[in-house]
Design a protein that fits this description.
- This protein is α/β, with parallel strands linked by helices.
- It has one domain: 3-Layer(aba) Sandwich (Aminopeptidase), CATH 3.40.630.10.
- It is built from nine helices and eleven strands.
- The strands form two sheets. The chain has a nine-stranded mixed β-sheet, sandwiched between helices. The protein has a two-stranded antiparallel sheet with strand order 2-3.
- Helix 4 links the parallel strand 5 and strand 6.
- Helix 4 crosses helix 9, helix 5 packs parallel to helix 8 and helix 7 packs across helix 9.
- The chain is globular.
Length: 308
């Protein structure tokens, strides 16, 4: 069953969605940019596209509004980290998170949480292809494949905003804590296929599952073990982070400690990280499909097995 499902991951659909978000019709996904003659900023237009797609898949997405400010740009910092916190006097904008819930039919109270931030960098005009259109299109593809397949447990997807301040995942994680949600695993998809130029040139397909708490280690090990089990054509590794960060960190800080981020390299080695060169033409699409298969296999295994 799992092997049959992961075989249905479509490289062509991933490619189409990736180029839709990063090249045509969209270039950026931020409140900081509005295309000439357009009324809505590019992040709002992205959200409209995602909502239309999600509804066409038969889901009922929930929209959560938050106020954000674009990061400022500080060119005196490391080139990959030019972002700087906005001033409280800077303009704020309404931005939306999008949540899709696929209810389980046997154990709906147990939740597998998936995350991908959908915005691109707000301090520089970058397509943000690796970071993080790749995670966005993978989670879209997973919803396409899972929306019509019964699951035992609930699978929840969050498309949030991380390249603006504050991060939306913090509010969503706190909301889940306040509700008393039983989230058995958190899988953050961020920057698939981002790897060193040497690995890119050599055609290596890589995935790292990175944990930052002891409770996350078994989940990272599960992710990596499924590559061999389902003969997915990718090299997968477990990484131990030195600290709690990124969107899965918002959930860890809220008490959901079985969490990992799945990404292309560790430490992150993409030479165009947070730069204008992070374009869709650089994304290794076969690597992207294999990464999607690994995450999908993990979700389906967790749905069968339950908490680790």
């Amino acid at each position: 069953m799992i092997a049959d499902t992961i075989a249905q991951v479509s490289l062509e659909k991933l490619r189409q969605d990736l180029f839709h978000l990063c090249r045509d019709p969209f270039s950026f996904r931020t409140v900081s940019y509005t295309a000439p003659w357009h009324v809505k900023n590019s992040l709002d237009e992205t959200d409209d596209f995602l909502l239309e797609r999600l509804r066409s898949l038969g889901t009922s997405p929930r929209v959560i509004s938050n106020r954000v400010r674009p990061y400022r740009c500080n060119e005196k910092k490391n080139i990959h980290r030019w972002y700087s916190f906005p001033y409280t006097t800077d303009p704020s904008y309404e931005a939306r998170s999008i949540e899709v819930t696929l209810m389980g039919n046997e154990l709906p109270g147990e939740i597998i949480q998936l995350i991908a931030h959908k915005d691109s960098q707000s301090w520089i005009n970058s397509a943000g292809a690796q970071d993080n259109a790749t995670g966005t299109v993978v989670n879209l593809e997973l919803i396409r494949l899972l929306a019509s397949v019964p699951q035992r447990r609930t699978i929840r997807f969050l498309f949030c905003n991380e390249e603006h301040f504050p991060w939306h995942s913090m509010a969503m994680a706190q909301e889940a804590k306040n509700r008393g949600d039983d989230i058995i695993a958190v899988l953050n998809s961020d920057s698939f296929c981002g790897k060193s130029d040497a690995d890119q040139d050599a055609g290596r397909k890589t995935l790292w599952s990175v944990y930052s708490t002891p409770e996350g280690k078994p989940l990272a090990e599960l992710v990596v073990s499924l590559v061999a089990k389902y003969q997915i054509p990718i090299e997968a590794f477990v990484g131990a982070s030195g600290g709690i960060s990124d969107d899965e960190g918002s959930y860890i800080n809220a008490g959901f400690r079985c969490a990992v981020v799945n990404q292309g390299s560790f430490p992150y080695m993409d030479s165009q990280y947070h730069l204008r060169g992070d374009i869709p033409e650089r994304v290794d699409l076969e690597n992207l499909r294999a990464s999607a298969q690994v995450v999908l296999a993990t979700v389906l295994e967790l749905d069968e097995q339950g908490r680790l």
